[in-house]
């Protein structure tokens, strides 16, 4: 049963620290999406990649967030420096291009910045 | 992307069909209707999608009106494990461009299945 995996599942850190979240997309998928979920804002798209190339990161605060795909099996989302307002659940999703592409979500990384 | 309107919450008795409506009156001809759900503390889960024909899979059925301005997700025999937030989303069908692939989540419908 192919799944998207995310690590870590939980992270508690102090303000100012760097946070790195990792995502392993489903093997063979060529699109990766990063979402953030908070009670106030709901689910928001931060960035997405197709064939490892970033296509849209307009939802991401550029000054402190960065997203990369070093290879087809790994996507990373970094926050540096982290702030309390970054506390949220971060979801990664992957899919396969074509008409009617479906996104499959990972379990999320629950981040708390103190 | 077309905007969707869903009821904030719904209740359903276990074993009965749950019918979740969604209005998408501004949908265009090149947009799919997608349904996802999110069970508490989990990532969103794909349920079903369609363009203009009704669709059925092992999880649910999707009924899209002929004018495509609304749809209904049907869970034929709801169980307690179906309690979740259900999101109706419309998204572009056409490959390419920066808007392709985006899922814009609204507030969804909180479905509570009770014994």
Folded structure, characterized:
The complex is a heterodimer of chains A (114) and B (115). By secondary structure, chain A is an all-beta fold. Chain A is 0% helix and 54% strand. Chain A contains no helices and 11 strands. Chain A has strands spanning 5-7, 10-13, 19-24, 31-38, 42-50, 53-56, 65-71, 74-79, 88-95, 104-105, 109-113. Chain A is globular. Chain B has 115 residues and is mostly beta strands. Helix content of chain B is 0%, strand content 45%. Chain B is built from no helices and 9 strands. Chain B has a 5-stranded mixed beta sheet, with no helix packed on it. In chain B, a hairpin with a 5-residue loop joins strand 6 and strand 7 (70-75). The mean pLDDT of chain B is 91.
Characteristic key phrases:
heterodimer, A: 114 residues, mainly beta, 7-stranded mixed β-sheet, 4-stranded antiparallel β-sheet, 11 strands, 0% helix, B: 115 residues, 5-stranded mixed β-sheet, 9 strands, 45% strand, globular
Described by its quaternary structure, the protein is heterodimer
> Which two chains form the greatest contact, residue counts included?
A-B, 26 and 20 residues
Number of helices of chain B: 0
Q: Tell me how many strands of chain A there are.
A: 11
What's the Cα radius of gyration of chain B?
Answer: 14 Å
Total of helices of chain A: 0
What's the overall geometry of chain A?
A: globular
Q: How much is the average pLDDT of chain A?
A: 92
First-to-last CA distance of chain A:
36 Å
N-to-C series of helices and strands of chain A: EEEEEEEEEEE
What's the SSE pattern of chain B? EEEEEEEEE
Shape of chain B: globular
Helical content class of chain A = under 10%
> Biggest β-sheet of chain B: count, sense, barrel?
5 strands, mixed
Question: What fraction of the residues of chain B are assigned to beta strands by DSSP?
Answer: over 45%
Outline the biggest β-sheet of chain A: 7 strands, mixed
Fraction in helix of chain B:
under 10%
Class of secondary structure makeup of chain B:
mainly beta
Q: What is the mean pLDDT of chain B?
A: 91
Low-confidence spans of chain B: none
